[in-house]
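U., I forgot to send this yesterday:
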Amino acid sequence: MELKCSSLLIITLFATLVISNAQGVVRSDHKGHCAPRLCPPDRIFVPATQQCHDPQDTSVCPDSRELFLTAYGTAICDCPVGTVESSNGLNVVVCEPILSKGHFCKEGQVIWFKDFNSPAQCLPDPCHGKNLQRLPGSLPFVPSQNNGECHQLGQTSGVCLPGLIYALHLPTLSGVCETLENLGYEQFNQTDLAFLNRRYGKTVVKNNALVDNFGQMQLFGTWSMGY
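Result:
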């Protein structure tokens, strides 16, 4: 049976993490349980600091890495979603955006994948140069699963039906129209929002760049060079 928690709880696997429940009983049965959130939904708890951090907090992760929460409830630093690890030739690993030329691809090539199970490499732009001409920081173009036409990720009007958004389907590396819920976004009703505000304080307003990055978290997949 699939384990589902309310929006005010989080699924935690206890294989490496031991947490006390409300009655003070320690569980260590190596199974998933619903446990109270330690942080607001947009923050990650870091045991080393005993604090809730913004995933893009530069005081926690080095080299442009960001905080991620594993299935075991532990925080790790990794390349931002939508990027892959790559060596710059000087024994320094950098995070390169996918579907960009990066630092090492030849003219006309972008960092992409032959298929879902292959590592990232320099390949011809699947959208015939559109990704090489887009503005820095903008979302990339991917071919549609339906007809092969290229559209920019995050598009709604003119590409998808109302209520849907254009996103990357990982197994086929093609674009599809999906709901925000199916893309993994948490949606809270007014009761849950009021509770979260009382428990953690009012929601932090993010600047546009950060909002864009959080949008990319669900429009992209998570890959590493040579994964």
